[in-house]
Amino acid sequence: MRTSSYRWHVVQTQVHAEGKAAANLKQQGYEVYMPRYLRQRRHARRVEVVPAPLFPRYLFVGFDAASARWRSIQSTYGVSHLVCHNQEPAVLPDSVIDELRAREDDKGIVRFHQAPQYARGDKIRVIGGALGESLGLFEGMADRDRVAVLLDLLGRKVRVILDRELVAAH
């Protein structure tokens, strides 16, 4: 039952124990939220897309700190500790959870908007880093978060891999 002082709090889990901690907290009657996203995992020359915690080693737990026996969270199997501030559980704004849940698809996977896609040969500008303000041509995606760019350096075309956030359309 949610009261006016029901809030979301942050729990740090043990390494790779988010699921174990969530199950044990739910068994104790706590509301638990563990946002997940799809990530690529490479193993034995295969690439798989698997759900993974959006915030590794962290879960969100909802309870009323005034009436709940929240100290039991500290000794829950899989939990490292409840994040506290001045001996009281730190409160997470409801808007954070609401925004994450608004981005979930029907399978509970958090989806983020993709950065603008470029076509091979599009002119782009480097907007940060050591090569800031350089102009080049988009060659392709190196992986999910990095782009391959052909830059004109020292009189010849050089292939450079950059974070996606460091380039913009020219």
Present the secondary structure layout.
Elements: E1 6-13, H1 18-27, E2 31-33, E3 36-43, E4 46-53, E5 58-64, E6 79-82, E7 84-85, E8 88-89, E9 91-92, H2 94-102, E10 123-126, E11 135-141, E12 146-153, E13 156-163, E14 167-169
Written account of the structure:
- The protein is mainly beta.
- The protein folds into two domains: 6-102, Alpha-Beta Plaits (2-Layer Sandwich); 123-169, SH3 type barrels, CATH 2.30.30.
- The protein has helices at 18-27, 94-102, and strands spanning 6-13, 31-33, 36-43, 46-53, 58-64, 79-82, 84-85, 88-89, 91-92, 123-126, 135-141, 146-153, 156-163, 167-169.
- Strands 1, 2, 5, 6 and 9 form a five-stranded antiparallel β-sheet that branches. A five-stranded antiparallel β-sheet has the order 13-12-11-10-14, with no helix packed on it. Strands 3-4 form a two-stranded antiparallel ribbon.
- A hairpin with an 8-residue loop joins strand 10 and strand 11 (135-141).
- The protein starts with 5 loop residues before the first strand and ends with a strand.
What is the global morphology?
elongated
Question: What's the gyration radius in Å?
Answer: 22 Å
Q: What class would the helix/strand composition place it in?
A: mainly beta
Distance N terminus to C terminus?
54 Å
The CATH C-level class name of the largest domain: Alpha Beta
Q: What composes the largest sheet? A: 5 strands, antiparallel
Range of strand content: 35-45%
Low-confidence stretches: none
Number of domains: 2
